[in-house]
Amino acid sequence: MDKRLKLLVLTQVMDMNDPVLGFFHRWVEEFAKHCESVIVICLYEGEHALPKNVQVLSLGKESCVSRLKYLYRFFTYIWQERKNYDAVFVHMNQIYVILGGVLWRLWGKWVSWWYAHGATSFSMWLAEKCTDIVFTSTPEGFRMPSKKLHIVGQGIDTDMFVPAPHTGTNKGLIVVTTGRISRVKYLELLIDAVEVAVERIPDVQLHIYGAPQTADEEVYHKELQQQVAAKRLTNIFFEGAVLHTALPKILQGADVFVQASQTGSLDKAVLEALATDIPVVSTNRAFKAFPGVLYTAHNASAVAEHVVMTCGQGGARNNIVKSHSIHNLATNIVRTLSSFERESRTTEREPLTNVYARRYYDDYLEKHTESYSESRWFSSDAARFDYEQTKRALIAALEDRKFAKALEIGPGDGAWTPYIAARSGSLTLLEQSEQMRRRVGGLIKEKGLANVTVVGGSFPIDVPAQKYDLVVSVRAFEYFEDKAAAFKTLAALLAPDGRVVIITKNPHYVALHGKPHRTLHDGQIGPRIFIELARAAGFTVESVYPATLRWLVRFGFFRTLFDTLHAWSVLMRTGTVVPVLARYTSESYLYVLTKNGD
Fold first, then answer.
1. Which of 95, 152, 212, 521 has the most CB atoms around its CB within 10 Å?
2. Helix (H, G, I), strand (E, B) or coil at 468
């Protein structure tokens, strides 16, 4: 395994003695075997004995600090240690992904999130948008469509949970169940099932290991105790919370493990029991036809019947070792993160040039006969939102002026050409893609744009040498190979009182959907560099504002929010209306330039 990866892990508890999350200590040990270093940020730090290449940083719950202090420490740690990790692994709690996801992406970190639970929520949806990779145990562990999903098993410590030969000293039948005292466990059904099973096996015993964690669970615990007392059952024992390290011995001493949950997700406690090779009775549909599990209906009589039938069952350990061991899980997670990191650093791509851009679009359009503008600007609500904002920004920059001679560089198939032509006496289109020239030529005929001429060639080599009152380039400037030379050429082309309007993509934009970086993105420059180059060529930068401003626009609230902010930015002709937000939510900026001294 490549041990170059430096991993940041976020979890709720780093305590080997925690009855619920103590197992995660072994996860970190396994990560450490495959990584150069591991930094763990946890909400609560307890006892741990981790390898030397692991550092633990606590948010301070063990010291009873405030939630505000948690937040302060969280952001302090991820900033201070940013040079000491390449990738992030968040265990379960999506709030860490939501809080840190944008920052980690800005810093070039790969963000991964482990989630294995049947519940879904808006915060889960949002976290999925903020992460690059989602790890889960089974398809049922992540019940939301995602192209980022990687299934890696449940992560059972099969070195600790091992079979032990039964000594035959048990009297009757020892039945156990483990986990939190929670209503979703339906422990009352197990109590009823034992009451039924006593009629067949008088010495049957049920041992319930686990403790309540919330106020409601405390109430539920008392209800269960009252149920046992009311039935006068002396063979049911509430054993309380136990250390995770004590579970193997408990399971090895049992005859059968029983579970009555209905979550539809693979329960870790069941897999731990199977790893010790004892039979399992479960009402959870996730274990229907699962090796070593006797699946049954969710009623006391059926559970009791299957508990009595368990003699001779078992033999499912090999399946757990193969598909759900901690060794395989840690190896797969680190390997996946390492491959992402390696690809982002070492994959060689053809450099972005005019030739590359021309070939890319010619090849694309040969394979796609539909309208490029239609697919780019009208194929989804988000695309239409981009179109309307770009249109607003462009029309504001053109104002109500009439330009005698205009030049549009890289018009594509003419998405913006009619708006420019309407304000021009004559308009020349310079387009290097042959396929795009054909399509924009069709648009010119269709709309009767008699004042528009198409010229083939790339900028600045093939631009017609004359003076223009207006030069426009929409989302093509990033393809110019030498941007300093491009500005000098633009300055030479501009007539007195003329203006240049450029819309170009913003390299600082954070795409929550996590699209991979492509060669076509390589030429992007931010506002600071753009303005420096423009001024060096003799331009005055009249205004800079977002051409598109958006995140999460599939939701009405965010559409309204960002459209209002965009309209205000365009009205004020500045991105400083929302400076920090604009930097990361503007997919593209619009610049208006005039020449000094004109």
1. 152
2. strand
